[in-house]
Amino acid sequence: MNSGDTAWVLVSAALVLFMTPGLALFYGGMVRAKSVLAVMMQNFVAMGVVTVLWAVVAFSLAFGHDAGGGIIGNLGLAGLAHTARSLPGFHGLTVSPLAVMAFQMMFAIITAALISGGIVDRTRFWGFVVLICAWTLLVYAPLAHWVFSPGGWLAHHGVLDFAGGTVVEIDSGFSTLAVVLVLGRRRGWPKEQMLPHSVPLSLLGAGILWFGWFGFNAGSALGANAVAVHAFVNTQLAAAAGLIGWIGFEQVREKYPTTLGAASGAVAAMVAITPCAGYVAPMAALLIGLLGGVICAAAVRVKFRLGYDDSLDVLGVHGVGGLVGMVLLGLFATRSVDPAGANGLFEGAGGAHFFAWELLAAVVAAAYAFAMTWVIAKVVDRTVGLRVSPEDETQGLDLALHAETAYSLGTGGRFGG
Asked: Nearest 5°: phi and psi at 387?
C-alpha cells in the first residue's frame, strides 16, 4: 500500500462527501422558501441511509466477485468482509481496498441525492427514503458493477467511464425522469412562476460542488499520479468553458446572462467531463466543457415543450450532460493521456469499435435506469406513497413534513414561499 496514494483517495472521498451538502445548498436556493428544508433533508438523509446500505450489502453487489454474466456481484464482500485484503479484479492497486470502498460510497450517496432535485415541492419524506433504498440496491449497484467493476459486462467489452458518466450522471438523470413521471407535475406548474428564493445560496452550493468535483474526478485515478493531474486540470478547464458556453447561450437566446446560468453551466460541464477526465487531452476538455454547457442549456428548456416537471433540471443537466460526455469520450479518448485507456474515433485504428461501445453503454444505462426506477417508483407510490396531499403541497413541505421553517422574522413569523 502506497501511503501517498491512499492519502489522496481518502482526501478525495472527503471532497466527494462534501459535494452532497453543496448539492443541498444548490438545490435549496432554487426552491421556494417554504420547501427549502425539505429538499436539504432529502440530501442529508441520503448520506445516512446510503452509507448503511453500502456497507451492509450494496458495495458487495457492485464490486464483489461476479455472480454470472457480468450483471451483479455476489455477497462475498457483504458487511465489508475481506475488504482489508483485496478487491476482485483490481490488479496493481496501491491503496487500501477499504479506501476504495469509502470513495465509491460517496459516489453512491450523491447519485441518490441528485434525484431529489427533480421532485421538489411534492414528495413525501419517507416515500423518498424507501425509494432511494430500493434504487441503490436495484439500480445503482448493478450499473456500478457493469461499468466500474472489472467483472462487469460493459467493462469486459472495453467501455471506459472515468468517474461516472453512466453510473452517476446518466443514471441520476433518467432515474429522476422516471420518478417525475410517476409523481406528476407540481400544482400550478408551468403557469405559476416558481422562482428561486435565494440565488446566492445556490451559487455557494455550486462553488462547493466545483471544489468537491476535483476529488470526484481526480480521485478516480485511485492514486496521486499523472492521470490524476490530467483529470484535475481537465475538470477545471471544462468547468470554465461550460460556464462561458451556458451564459453565451443565454445572451444569444434571451439577451441576458444570469448568475444561476453561470453556476449551472459550470456544473453541466463538469458532468460532461466526468467520464472523460482521465482519458482526454486538455484542449479536448475545453471543447467538451463548452459543448456540455451549451447543449445542457438548450436541454433544460425542452421540458416546457414536452410537459414533464423536472423541477431543478436533473435530466437536462446530469442526464444529457452524461450522454454528451460519453459520446465525446468515444471521439476524443487518447492513450497518450492514459496508456490503460483507449483511442477514440478521432485517434485512428480501433476507434470506431470503442466509439460504438461507448454509445451502447450510454443507451443501456439510460434505458435501465429509467425502466427500473419507474417500476420502483410505482411500487413505492402504491404502498408507502410518494406524493404529498394538495394541502401539504400548498402549505409547504418544511412545515407539513418536518414542523420547521428555514427562516423566521421575529416571533412566529415565517416566509410562505
From this structure: -100, 135
Helix axis angle, 199-218 to 3-30, nearest 10°: 160
pLDDT at 291 over 60: yes
For 131-169, what is each residue's pLDDT tens digit?
A: 999 999 999 999 999 999 999 999 999 999 999 999 999
Say how far apart CA 150 and CA 79 lie, in whole Å.
Answer: 21
For 339-365, what is each residue's pLDDT tens digit? 999 999 998 777 999 999 999 999 999
Alpha carbon distance 318, 362 (integer Å):
13
Return the number of other C-beta atoms located less than 10 Å from residue 217's C-beta: 29
Q: Which three cell numbers stand for residue 384?
A: 408507502
Integer angstrom CA distances of residue 299 from 46, 260, 304, 341: 27, 16, 10, 30
| Cβ contact 322:42 at 8 Å | no
CB 80 within 8 A of CB 57: no
- Burial status of residue 361 (CB atoms within 10 A of its CB: 0-12, 13-18, 19 or more): buried
With contact defined as beta carbons under 8 Å apart, do 8 and 215 qualify? no
Spatial separation of the C-alpha atoms in residues 64 and 149, rounded to whole Å: 8
Residues 6+ apart with CB under 8 A from 275: 160, 161, 162, 163, 164, 165, 166, 169, 322, 325, 326, 329
Cα(343)–Cα(354) distance, integer angstroms: 8
- In the chain the domains, ranked by start, together with CATH numbers, are 3-402 (1.10.3430.10)
- Name the region of 82 (left: φ>0; alpha: ψ -120 to 50; beta: rest): left
Q: Please give the grid coordinates belonging to residue 382.
A: 402504491
Residues linked to residue 62 through DSSP beta bridges, in sequence order: none
